[in-house]
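Let us practice reading a record.
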Amino acid sequence: MTRHVLRQFAVQTLYQMEVGQMSKEEAIENVKVMVEGLKEEAMGLVAEEVTPHQILEIERQFTLEDFYFELVDGVLTHQQAIDQLIEENLKGWSFSRLNKVDRAILRLAAYEMKFSQETPHKIIIDEAVELTKEFSDTGDGKARSFNNKVLDQMSKRLA
């Protein structure tokens, strides 16, 4: 899976934990079930023409990789510091007012910026804006703009 897709699943996991009051294990299991369903759908699309090599490739493409688990565990391990970092970078807004989807996206990006440092901040921000488009934006661009501004401010502070 691409890192973007793994980030999508990480956001969904974090969101499920907060909204559904689920344990990490329950939320991860839900994501695994979703990934398995996607894999079965992909296999069904190529079922008649599939070779053993293609089966292995589909299996590989539909596997949650270490990066996903690093993101989820990292956010949970450092959540208090991450939430404080987000709060410090909100201008005229409080952390409690953030919707839960944006909260999950911002937590994920804040974790990567502050604790992972594997990916440049610009890419992390671009990824978070894409995730916002996919999960939170209502078409007016306000959520994208808001999250972009918060993350840009955070990046400057962490530089």
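A brief commentary: The two ends are 30 Å apart (CA to CA).
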